[in-house]
Amino acid sequence: MDGTYSQNDLSHVVDADKAHVWHHLVQHKQFESKDPNIIVEGKGMRVWNQAGKEHLDAVSGGVWTVNVGYGRERIAKAVYDQLLRMNYFAGAAGSVPGALFAEQLIAKMPGLTRVYYCNSGSEANEKAFKMVRQIAHKRYGGKKNKILFRDRDYHGTTIACLSAGGQDERGAQYGPFTPGFVRVPHCLEYRAADQGAPTEGYGEWAADQIEQVILAEGPDTIGAICLEPVTAGGGVITPPEGYWQKVQDICRKYDILLHIDEVVCGVGRTGTWFGYQHYGIEPDFVTMAKGVASGYAAIACCVTSERVFDLFKDDASDPLNYFRDISTFGGCTAGPAAAIENLAIIEEENLLENTVEMGDYMMGCLLELADKHRVIGNVRGKGLFLGAELVADRDTREPAPEAKVQAVVGDCMAQGVIIGATNRSVPGYNNTLCYSPALIATKDDIDQIIAATDSALTKVFG
């Protein structure tokens, strides 16, 4: 840390924080006896808190966001220059960075053509849900309005997004929920036995379970299905072989729109621009947020096909026929200005290639840890998005207690390495360590992450 802030400054910041800030996902009772953690500075993959302690960040800003690392001056300068020239105008009008980023983004998403700007992943998913509902009214007399979602997937924090959330602890105490959202089973092959699934052909079996739900609900009532390409906070679940092609075939069979939630996986996290591009599928909607500008400015996008866009473009006399939606800060130019530079950095520094190479290296390291620690039941992931599921018994696959999983996270933090884990999300299955280092990660960075995990597992589980 470069000492820009004096200790008196930071003491005041801590006091102000404790007195006035309501933190995300935190029980504040603890701050009656200790100080909150305040991140003061970041550079590359490392951050420093108010005490000057350095941490290697293996979760890209805590929630899978800072894909190109901290301290990128060119992004900050691009935002500064843009804000001086033109900072904001409502999204009913266009902007220079909005048009240019949309053009660059669409060039990386064959088959998709339109970008709707907003400012968070939850909001991007809400836009898609609203589009589906409006299409139901415009084309199907309001009937084809239900939206399928998958167990263990997560799509955001609003009431509608929680209604489409497959993590019951995230939604606890926030009901009643929005009607018209219907759950389908997860596709975690490691937990196939818990579903009574066959040992062979699990991917197609899991997709068949979606079709069974569609038939039970009535295909003429289902408008869309919303899925993560790789389930993120529900346990870093990579889809099994045969799954995605069968899901796409089912959607086409019943005229169901396919909505891929790339809020976590999008813009390089898995080694391709978007996670769905590993699996040869052609979505109707793709939503994204976190990595779009690597956290340097707030931006989210709901991207659609021209087929979807054309459903809202007509000369009908009905004055309600267009998509009547607004996102106030979707008109802020900082987001697309930052996103343009973010894309340029990924391309110029070959970060997709690095993500594949370092992801393979880290996967190998985690598998070696699994050979050493029987508490690791399963290792899975794609690119620099990896998970290690911890179990109390490898033979029965009984999940490790959540408290012990969190103790591993806490011990890594004490060692100066920030890792993540599923927590307060999926009842009984909050047992997966989560890793998502920035796309700039080196072997030395990964070795440090693995060494901290190794030490923590030994300390917590023996």
CATH class of the largest domain: Alpha Beta
Helical fraction: 25-40%
Q: Figure out the total of helices.
A: 14
For the termini, the CA-CA separation is 35 Å
Fourth CATH level, the homologous superfamily of the largest domain:
Type I PLP-dependent aspartate aminotransferase-like (Major domain)
Backbone shape: globular
Instruction: Please give the CATH architecture of the largest domain.
Output: 3-Layer(aba) Sandwich
What structural class is derived from the secondary structure elements? alpha/beta
Largest sheet: 7 strands, mixed
Protein name: Taurine--pyruvate aminotransferase
Enzyme class: transferase
InterPro entries: Aminotrans_3 (IPR005814), Aminotrans_3_PPA_site (IPR049704), PyrdxlP-dep_Trfase (IPR015424), PyrdxlP-dep_Trfase_major (IPR015421), PyrdxlP-dep_Trfase_small (IPR015422)
Family: Belongs to the class-III pyridoxal-phosphate-dependent aminotransferase family.
Descriptive notes:
This protein has helices at 7-20, 60-64, 73-85, 96-106, 121-140, 159-163, 168-171, 202-217, 243-253, 306-310, 334-348, 351-372, 402-414, 443-461, and strands at residues 39-43, 46-49, 54-57, 114-118, 146-150, 181-184, 222-227, 257-261, 285-288, 300-304, 376-382, 385-393, 398-399, 417-418, 420-421, 432-435. The chain has 462 residues and is of the alpha/beta class. The chain has a 7-stranded mixed sheet with strand order 4-10-9-8-7-5-6, sandwiched between helices. Helix 3 (73-85) packs antiparallel against helix 11, helix 4 packs parallel to helix 11 (334-348) and helix 8 runs parallel beside helix 9. The chain is globular. The relative contact order is 0.15. Its cofactor is pyridoxal 5'-phosphate. It comes from Tropicibacter naphthalenivorans. Its EC number is 2.6.1.77. GO terms for molecular function: pyridoxal phosphate binding; taurine-pyruvate aminotransferase activity.
